[in-house]
Amino acid sequence: MVHKSIGKEVCSRHKHFSLLGKEIYYYRELTSTNSIARQMAISGATDGSVVMSRSQSSGHGRMQRQWHCPPGKGLLLSMILRPQISVQFVPQLTLLTAVVVAETIKIVTGCAAGIKWPNDIFINGKKVCGILAESNFSKSNFEYVIIGLGINVNLETIHLPSDCQETSTSLSIELGQNVSRFKLLKQFIISWDEHFQGFVRAGHPYLRNKWIKNNVTLGRNVTVNKGNYSIHGSAEDVSEKGGLIVRLSDGSLQEFLAEDVSIRRRF
Ligand code: BTN
Fold first, then answer.
1. What's CA 247's distance to the chain center, in Å?
2. How far apart are CA 17 and CA 244, in angstroms?
3. Which residue's CA is minimally distant from atom 9 of ligand 1?
4. pLDDT over 70 for what percent of the chain?
5. Which domains can be identified in the chain, with CATH numbers?
6. Which of 11, 142, 151, 154 is least surrounded, with the fewest CB atoms within 10 Å of its CB?
7. Can you give the pTM of this predicted structure?
8. Ligand 1 pocket, 101 CB below 6 A?
9. Prior bond to 118 cis, omega within 30?
């Protein structure tokens, strides 16, 4: 099957197959799985469809950052969702995805993966996965949410951008052997279905409980980057809006929704 162009996006041939009830569109190369997934969502792709690629020429993350991964070394995927939940709960889908990815990594590799709020997965203090949720709203309804994730699977340190070599890692670096991307994909779908159903059934208490079990953020001293100044405090909880609740030095609590947060090192 060939998609010569989807809207403005041009990409290569793709394979289409079904896996555990999800439609998977696998490309050798494209601009960004999130961008192609967005075009497919606009064209009417079904809820739960997954766009994957061996490589991306313009992979992107939060805060206009780029996402680099050598061909075939990472799990690069975006899922199209059309969930029947109200707009204010959409940020919680990022937290839910983080729970699913942390659990997927633990089940497939045994590595102790933990969530750094809101959208990073860490192993041994280094980032192994980033998550980017993008949605389209019309008034109070939203039409779709794209959940994109990039897991560093079989990269060596030399494959990581030089400014990330100290702060990022991969599953193969942590494990000392390569990991099957297909196994990760399968487990991601299994865990997604389990936790998404739990979230729809029981809402924030379900998500908060799973998130707390899998996080490496709460109880830690954090720095919230506000652009030209920073705020320091201790991370205490996650809110119903998917925000991070931080206790500041004057004892007050403040909620942060979309800021860049770093965990301060223990000395
Ligand atoms: C972040 O750490 O800021 C999020 C990074 C998300 C990267 C993934 S790779 C697959 C998907 N396609 C993209 O362009 N971005 C996400």
1. 26
2. 38
3. 150
4. 92
5. 4-214 (3.30.930.10), 221-263 (2.30.30.100)
6. 142
7. 0.92
8. no
9. yes
